[in-house]
Specification:
With about 575 residues, the protein is mostly helical. The protein has 22 helices and no strands. It is found in: Membrane.
């Protein structure tokens, strides 16, 4: 152990404990993680101490991974499961125009709390946050199943999103942490496969249950699916087993959490409210909320910069560390995740919705249309991990994936107006899925390689949050396009009463005359075409952003494993000095 570290940790027992030799945080010595990662300097904020743990038994680790993976699957499944349910939900509650909030209420709270849950787990522990998230998710799901009105359903969906945020964040954090170091790439690829499968399985499962037993059963089945893994984690996950020593609750960045929540939720909220015409685009409310959302982003950056520079605030663990915000590669990965999430959720929601109106498909057939995308996504995630197994190839993979998204979205914009979808649509969806899968695995892997070990949880939380944030904005934009096309195409063809009925349930078009049915179908066709044009533009922007992830000598898996061994050795030394000082 170096003299510098000894001098920092041997002054007294109280000083050692306060400085993080056991608890991590204020004043604890940070270490140089090498030039291959985003790092903090020795005079930076306190670092969380790593400790070497005895490996969990193989069978127990497999069960823990399965339970955490189920949590991730449920979290993402419930974000998209309502895609094939919206028509039936709007018919029951007689409000199609507001039904988009069944999707957005969940995604907004999920995006708002993802980073907060990641940081909270640094203080309370991964196991505690994971089990609590299962409990919240289960209780809110039961509320959704029993909802007596659309407002109740939206409210419980928002609560469900809080639990989903915890399940999502804990999976992204604990898979790499609990896995043997030599299996980090494998488990990262597994995460990507789960993300891709869950996102596309949602509409398929939703369609099946809605058709044969009713949409409420989509939420009822969450009871056993969440209860069993939650209880198993409570029993099998060793107490306090995690790579990092916990930090104190007083070290959490509460202001940063509020700023991130406001900055992500407010813009999407008001954009959707303006889209469904609850507020005019030029109204004082709309403009004010958008301005406040923008100011929250500015305030967040300023606050994180202050935390990094003010010695009086170094005891606070930043919600979005400033050295991540100033890292070219990490910032590019964050923006790329946001843009790919936009394309992912927009496609998952709008492909089955278009088929239900244009092709008059039932929920099952509409959901089945996404099966090629599911297969392509799983393949893309596995391929992305394999390509970076020996050498870090995330840069070329991200660039190629952006091109795939742009091309496939452009071709899908030309779907013809026919009773049956063309055969090539299935192939194009598979290609789109491959592009999304490559994006998911590569950005997740990039965050693992580029961030410090002490920032692992927060970097994965940011990646998770930005993916859902982009998807939420994608859904909101698609609603704007759809409402605009309905208004421009149907106002001259339908009476005010018919238009109001259409807003309550689009299936009312089956009662319209042949000419009016054609006009209504054309509105959905045009809206989908514009949505795909938007996806092309977003994918091109993603390609430009991906260029900023280029590194002449990118960090490899092997170099990261070597860094981990050095960090564990230093953590053991610090813990040893602390215990000696106490004695």
């Amino acid at each position: 152990m170096s003299d510098e570290v000894k001098s920092m940790c041997s002054a007294s027992a109280d000083t050692a404990l306060d400085n993080g030799c056991r608890g991590g945080g204020d004043g604890s010595p940070s270490v140089d993680h090498g030039s291959s990662t985003v790092g903090s300097t020795p005079d930076d904020r306190g670092a969380i101490v790593l400790r070497r743990k005895k490996p969990i038994a193989g069978w127990r680790l497999a069960v823990i991974f399965a339970c955490i993976g189920m949590g991730l699957f449920l979290s993402l499944l419930d974000a998209t499961v309502v895609a094939t349910m919206l028509v039936d939900i709007s018919a029951e509650f007689q409000d199609f125009r507001t039904s988009s909030w069944v999707v957005l209420a969940y995604t907004l709270t999920e995006v708002g709390f993802a980073v907060a849950m990641a940081r909270l787990s640094d203080a309370l522990g991964r196991k505690t946050v994971a089990c609590a998230s299962f409990a919240v998710f289960l209780a809110a799901s039961m509320g959704c199943a029993a909802a007596a009105s659309l407002d109740q359903l939206i409210g419980f969906r928002a609560a469900q999103g809080v639990g989903g945020a915890g399940l999502y964040a804990m999976a992204m954090i604990t898979y790499p942490e609990l896995s043997p170091p030599s299996r980090v790439v494998l488990v990262t690829s597994a995460l990507g496969v789960i993300v891709a499968l869950a996102g596309v399985c949602g509409p398929v499962i939703g369609g099946l249950l809605t058709t044969y037993v009713g949409w409420r059963y989509v939420f009822w089945i969450n009871a056993p699916c969440a209860f069993v893994p939650g209880v198993l984690l409570l029993i099998l996950w060793p107490k306090d087993y995690q790579l990092f020593v916990k930090i104190s609750m007083r070290r959490l960045d509460y202001l940063g959490a509020v700023l991130i929540l406001s900055a992500t939720v407010l813009p999407v909220f008001i954009i959707n409210q303006a889209a469904i015409q609850d507020y005019a685009w030029r109204s004082a409310t709309t403009i004010s909320v958008l301005v406040i959302g923008g100011l929250c982003w500015v305030g967040l950056v300023v606050w994180q910069r202050q935390l990094a520079r003010d010695v009086r605030l170094r005891h606070i663990r930043p919600q979005l560390p400033f050295h991540i915000l100033t890292s070219r590669v990490m910032l590019a990965a964050i923006f790329d995740t946001f843009l790919s999430g936009f394309v992912l959720l927009l496609a998952i929601i709008n492909i089955p919705l278009r088929s239900q109106i244009v092709n008059l498909y039932g929920p099952v057939k509409a959901g089945a249309l996404l099966l090629p995308m599911m297969g392509g996504g799983a393949f893309g995630c596995a391929l992305g991990g394999a390509l970076s197994l020996r050498r870090n190839n995330t840069f070329p993979v991200l660039v190629a994936a952006s091109a795939i998204l742009a091309i496939s979205s452009g071709v899908l914009s030309g779907l013809p107006d026919k009773a049956e979808p063309p055969a090539w649509q299935w192939g194009l969806e598979a290609v789109l899925g491959v592009g999304i899968g490559l994006k998911i695995s590569s950005t997740t892997f990039l965050a693992v390689l580029q961030s410090d070990f002490e920032d692992h949880a927060i970097s994965q939380g940011i990646i998770a949050q930005m993916r859902v944030f982009g998807g939420s904005l994608g859904v909101a934009i698609s609603i704007i396009v759809l409402i605009a096309k309905i208004q421009s195409g149907l106002q001259d063809s339908l009476t005010p009463d018919q238009l109001a009925s259409f807003y309550r349930s689009p299936l009312i078009l089956l009662q319209f005359g042949p000419k009016q049915q054609l006009v209504a179908r054309q509105a959905f066709i045009d809206a989908f075409r514009v949505d795909m044009y938007v996806c092309v533009g977003v994918s091109v922007a993603s390609l430009l952003v991906a260029l900023f992830t280029y590194q002449r000598h990118p960090p490899s898996v092997q170099s990261k494993l070597e860094d981990l061994e050095r960090e564990l050795a230093r953590g053991a030394a610090l813990m040893g000095v602390s215990e000696t000082t106490e004695a």
